[in-house]
Each structure stands twice: as structure tokens, then as C-alpha cells.
Amino acid sequence: MRSSLEQVFDVPAERLWALYFFDEAHGRALSEHLGLRVLDDQLQHEGIGPRLIVRRQLQVVSQRELPPVLRRLVGGDLVMLERGEFNAERRRYSVQIELPLVGSVIACGNEFTWDDRPDGSVRRTWEGWCTAKVPLLGGPIERAILAELATTLVRSHAFTSRWLREHPEARAGAA
């Protein structure tokens, strides 16, 4: 199953991604806002600006109330491992999401692409996918996971847009 979403940020792409990857205050505040507890965050990067490449591994626990189908599946806290590769030149950030307790039957991921807009803002497109090999419950599980990912992105967009307005210094200069 697949899902997609487009969002516009009032900053250039380079600034948006620098905020997500390198602004620790934003990262902590965003995780708290989203109800995610970060267990491990490993980041490697090379290059700068349009040649930036980032490899990130992030392990988080969702502290939000889960939809019933996911709550039954994981039986407690939802632990997720994200492995992503960002390439500014290719304008692509690809992420594989692993759910350790059920990873052998559920595969998920997403890909972000973006375009610069004439007004200096950036339009980011998210394409999420999920496959659940669980008899009779595969479709509902896929829908629930994609809905959770989409909800997280909507909340993240609103938070980050507000953060950029309230922290004007966060607009200037990329890491």
C-alpha cells in the first residue's frame, strides 16, 4: 500500500534539511511534540550545501496512543528503527523503517523529494509505502501504519513551520 503528501516550507531546501539534521534544539523539541522518545540517533555526513550526503540511523519509541490494530500487533510500545540516506544533489531522502518485533512480516519506508519554488520556499513530497504479510490483517495494518506516518508528517510540518517563524535565527545559515 502507498500514500503521498505534499507540503510547503517557507525556507529554501538547504535550510529545511539543515534544520532537520543539524539543529539539536529543534530535533529535541520536535521529538517531544510528536510523542517520540529517541533511544539512539547516529548521523554521518559528508559534503555541504548542494553536495550534502547524510546517513542517519534513528531508533525511537512512540509514546502516543496507537490505533487498536497496531496496539494488538506490538502489544506495548511501538519501537521503530529508521535508516535513511539523504542526497541533496539527487533531491532525495530515502528511509527504511523497521519494526523490530514484527520486522519479518512488515516492511515500510518512505521517500522525500523536493522542488524549489520561485518565491524561495520549498515543496516537499512524501511517498510512503508499507507491506504487511499478515493474513486477514495486512490491509488494516498497512493503512494504520501509513496513517500514523502521514499524521506525524502533518504535525511535524506545522511544528517546524511555527519553529521557523518563532526562531528567526534558525532561518539563517546552514550547518
Mean pLDDT: 89
The string of secondary-structure elements, in order, is: EHHEEHEEEEH
The span between the termini is 36 Å
Q: Number of helical runs?
A: 4
Overall shape: it is: globular
The biggest beta sheet reads: 7 strands, antiparallel
Please state the structural category: alpha+beta
- Strand composition percent: 35-45%
Stretches where pLDDT is under 50 for at least 5 consecutive residues are 171-175
**Assembly category:** single chain
Reading side by side through the largest sheet, how are the strands ordered?
1-7-6-5-4-3-2
Helix content: 25-40%
Radius of gyration: 16 Å
DSSP E strands, number: 7
How is this structure best summarized?
The chain has 175 residues and is an alpha+beta fold. The protein has helices at 13-22, 24-34, 68-74, 138-166; strands at 2-9, 36-46, 53-62, 78-87, 92-98, 106-116, 122-132. A hairpin with a 7-residue loop joins strand 5 (92-98) and strand 6 (106-116).
Topology:
Elements: E1 2-9, H1 13-22, H2 24-34, E2 36-46, E3 53-62, H3 68-74, E4 78-87, E5 92-98, E6 106-116, E7 122-132, H4 138-166
Antiparallel strand pairs: 1-7, 2-3, 3-4, 4-5, 5-6, 6-7
Helix pairs in contact: 2-4
Overview of this protein structure:
By secondary structure, the protein is an alpha+beta fold. Helix content is 33%, strand content 39%. It contains 4 helices and 7 strands. It has helices at 13-22, 24-34, 68-74, 138-166; strands spanning 2-9, 36-46, 53-62, 78-87, 92-98, 106-116, 122-132. Strands 1-7-6-5-4-3-2 form a 7-stranded antiparallel beta sheet. Helix 2 crosses helix 4. The longest helix is centred in the C-terminal third of the chain and has 29 residues, at 138-166. The chain starts with a strand and ends in a 9-residue tail after the last helix.
